[in-house]
Amino acid sequence: MALTDADSGEESADCKQLRWKEVEQQTNKCFDSIRSDMLALDLNSESTPATKLERVEIMESVVQVLILEMVLGKSAPWNSHLPPAFALFEEIMACSGPSYQDQGQSKFASVLLGIGQPLWTKRGHGSHIWSPDQAGFRFCAGFLIFVDAVASTSIQETPTLLKYHPDILARIDEGTSVVSDAEIRLSSIVGCRNWVIRSIAEISALDSWKRGQIEANSLSVVDLVDRASGIANGLRNGILEIQNCPIAGSPPYLNHHAPFDMRPSPSASSKSTLIWAYAAQLYLTVVVSGWQLSNTEVRANVAQIIELFQTVPSYQLRALAWPLCVAGCLALESEESSFMTLFSNQGKVCTAGALDDVRQILEQVWQIRTTLHASTWNLASCFSILGSPVLLA
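and the corresponding structure tokens:
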């Protein structure tokens, strides 16, 4: 969502501000309606318990408004709206339908089957073509896991849904989508493969643990490094695996319609996954070693991200807001132009929301670059520099 200038007059800025204010007001009305629906569920819980499908429908409504709020950026009260979505999700997951698990279905497949009947089931194999209700919940579950991981890096708390990752995220995500799967491949939802988002969630949990240890005056550096080593190895191995499989270019006929092509592309997810993975390595380095711009690993990862961004189409930049911000905050003065060029390549579109937040964050962090202290400044500090934590999902 964006606004373009139809007139370059002096009233343009005031007009755009008014339009976005109207969007925010409509968003608040949506949440008021959803809140009423949730209260109705609670009021009826004793006499007539809400069905799983009713909870799914409300959760999907919450997710849709959250997506709109991410478009609005820092002005949206996303931090107060995530908990209701998580609460509904956990209620739905708690009704797993043990009878389905007795039939050999996985935990998440049992949850999906508890929502309703699939459109088609292959006898003897447990493969399903999911109904719209099941597919909708499946999408929202994956999206919430992604948002939860990214949000946790801003608020410095262990991801709420981290414990659900083993049940919901597919063990293998190679950038392709299998419609009969129950478990989710995030590459088909957000363009980044499971192992990177899982790693970011684990790093956030490590950061939360570290802060708790510091507050208790009992931090062991050896223990910290040991906990981080497993995450670091996973990221390193994942990056090497992608690098050993060359990122093929898309055929010309696909490039022509690229913004509207909805088919998952392994090569496309390879590039975006690499960008996210290098940013995750930066995040891990800052959590373990503090804010050190001269760190060789920091410089190498920022350089890799800058190089990869040179080949990212402008319409895909919004989906990479988090890694863009992470790398940009750790950029040297000589690298600033590489990041500002990405924003200028947006053309006449007046970007709102996450990308504009990233630009403002980078400009403010760069201004105070020389005053930042390694032990007190971190990425969460960057994400809150505009006055409140931003959600760059």
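(Above: one complete record from the training split.) The chain has 16 helices and four strands.
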